[in-house]
């Protein structure tokens, strides 16, 4: 199936972004002829997505490293700006390792022999508030291991500095109290230093880290002969004359052909943080040079690698056997009973009873995936089996504001097509269009669609199967991001508070083009 966005131009070149969706805070590692990438997943579950590529341009989603967030009770409800921040992915001692900072709890790590798992349970390596953006290093020359991390001022009162530790090789213990190894306040013009990635190269310890803020900042490089410093710094990637704002944190990989490349993100509002690939070279003074003389490239020669099929992370889902694909994440830790097993294709969601049925932002049982491109159309068929008055289900665009279209069972037993929305400051949803009775000839099923245009302008439509075709619903809705997260496509089913089960809704044929 043709991806919605393809970075591979088919002529030996690629275009940026190579991942045109919200794969925030990417980090990558090369293992043999394979490349793997992970990204922030914040409060969604499963977390820590795992992507695979053979050429750094064509990527597929192969799984997740974190089934549930810990502490589990803290993520029973949506925590859209918390959870997994800026993970680092490494391969050492014949294992894959992922370290990340949870700003409210501390630094965690998981590890596995194979990227598809099984992954270990999360281990809290360093407890504390405001500990973020953790990255380990195993120094194969000395056998020692290290850790560096940044700080979130919102929790700790501290920012713009990087702290370093010695660490046991098993990644379970820090061997010292740590010390500040880079203080951004001492570097003229530098602020909001964060997202460090730690490497060893050419006899130097290297830290690649952005500063200056997500929307307007730059990518820096730091080097020192000793892990604890002192470090010298240089700006190695900035927007310059391009339209790639703030080129922000990412990871350096060296290919089997000996080429160096750098993956980083660009913040694009409701579309989230999309991933760019930059060529990487070294100047005569031994500093990295990213992109085109320090500015992001738009189109470039692909990395030297065997030919690969055009590929991008999946979006479509036929829900075979009632199961949903890897591209979906819940808005909180999942619970038993949210999906209902059955023998046919189609996703059957339970209409979960909730006091928050009026506000999708508060529901933990919304099944979501990323906006897959700047311009696309997403559609799905829906039937509402629930006979519970007030039960509803639909297709949503979910962010700090949200809008959805779907079906609702009225107190009179009639199923109506409804379209509702809520502004960012609103505490409950409002009508976006007049409700419409679903005719008996529709067989209780409707097709739903959202067309997304540049600027994340969303136009909803429906087809009741009565021969009228697609009909628009309501005014244009402009999607908005969460605090750190791009807007999401969502499927949900919910019912008012009460006793006992409230029935189900079934989604079939989710398709994006």
UniProtKB/TrEMBL annotation:
Transmembrane segments: none annotated. It comes from the Bacteria. The keyword Electron transport does not apply. GO terms for molecular function: hydrolase activity. Residues 317-512 form the Beta-xylosidase C-terminal Concanavalin A-like domain. Pfam families: GH43_C2 (PF17851), Glyco_hydro_43 (PF04616). The keyword Hydrolase applies. Belongs to the glycosyl hydrolase 43 family. This is Glycoside hydrolase 43 family protein. The lineage of its organism: Bacteria, Bacillati, Actinomycetota, Actinomycetes, Kitasatosporales.
């Amino acid at each position: 199936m043709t991806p919605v966005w393809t970075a591979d131009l088919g002529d030996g070149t690629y275009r940026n972004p190579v991942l045109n969706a919200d794969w925030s805070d990417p980090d990558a590692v090369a293992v043999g002829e394979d490349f793997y990438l992970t990204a922030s997943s914040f409060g969604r579950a499963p977390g820590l997505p795992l992507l695979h590529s053979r050429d750094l341009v064509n990527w597929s989603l192969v799984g997740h490293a974190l089934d549930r967030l810990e502490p589990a009770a803290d993520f029973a409800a949506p925590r859209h700006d918390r959870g997994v921040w800026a993970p680092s992915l490494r391969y050492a001692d014949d294992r894959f390792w992922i370290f990340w900072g949870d700003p409210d709890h501390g630094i965690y790590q998981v590890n596995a022999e194979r990227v598809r798992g099984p992954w270990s349970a999360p281990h809290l390596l360093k407890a504390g508030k405001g500990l973020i953006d953790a990255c380990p290093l195993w120094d194969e020359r000395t056998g020692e291991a290290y850790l560096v991390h940044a700080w979130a001022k919102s929790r700790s009162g501290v920012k713009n500095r990087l702290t370093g530790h010695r660490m046991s090789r098993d990644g379970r213990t820090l061997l010292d109290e740590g010390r500040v190894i880079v203080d951004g306040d001492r570097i003229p013009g530098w602020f909001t230093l964060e997202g460090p990635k730690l490497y060893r190269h050419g006899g130097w310890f290297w830290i690649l880290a952005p500063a200056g803020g997500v929307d307007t900042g730059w990518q820096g490089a730091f080097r020192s002969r000793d892990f604890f410093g002192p470090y010298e710094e240089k700006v190695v990637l900035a927007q310059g004359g391009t339209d790639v704002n703030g080129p922000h944190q990412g990871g350096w990989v060296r290919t089997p052909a000996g080429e160096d490349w750098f993956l980083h993100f660009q913040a694009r509002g409701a579309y989230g943080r999309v991933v760019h690939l930059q060529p990487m070279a070294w100047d005569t003074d031994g500093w990295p040079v990213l992109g085109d003389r320090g500015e992001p490239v738009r189109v470039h020669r692909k990395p030297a690698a065997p030919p690969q099929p055009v590929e991008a992370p999946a979006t479509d889902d036929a829900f075979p056997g009632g199961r949903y694909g890897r591209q979906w994440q819940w808005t909180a830790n999942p619970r038993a009973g949210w999906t209902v097993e059955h023998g046919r294709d189609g996703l059957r969601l339970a209409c979960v009873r909730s006091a928050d049925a009026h506000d999708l932002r508060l529901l933990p049982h919304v099944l979501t995936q990323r906006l897959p491109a700047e311009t696309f159309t997403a559609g799905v068929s829906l039937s509402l089996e629930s006979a519970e008055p007030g039960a509803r289900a639909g297709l949503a665009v979910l962010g700090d504001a949200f809008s959805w279209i779907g079906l609702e069972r009225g107190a009179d037993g009639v199923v109506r097509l409804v379209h509702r929305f809520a502004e960012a400051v609103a505490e409950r949803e409002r009508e976006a269009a007049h409700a419409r009775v679903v005719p008996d000839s529709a067989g209780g099923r409707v097709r739903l669609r959202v067309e997304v245009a540049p600027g994340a302008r969303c136009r909803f439509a429906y087809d009741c199967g009565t021969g009228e075709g697609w009909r628009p619903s309501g005014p244009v809705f402009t999607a908005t991001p969460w605090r750190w997260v791009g807007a999401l496509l969502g499927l949900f089913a919910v019912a008012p508070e009460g006793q006992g089960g409230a029935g189900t809704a079934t989604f079939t044929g989710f398709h994006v083009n």
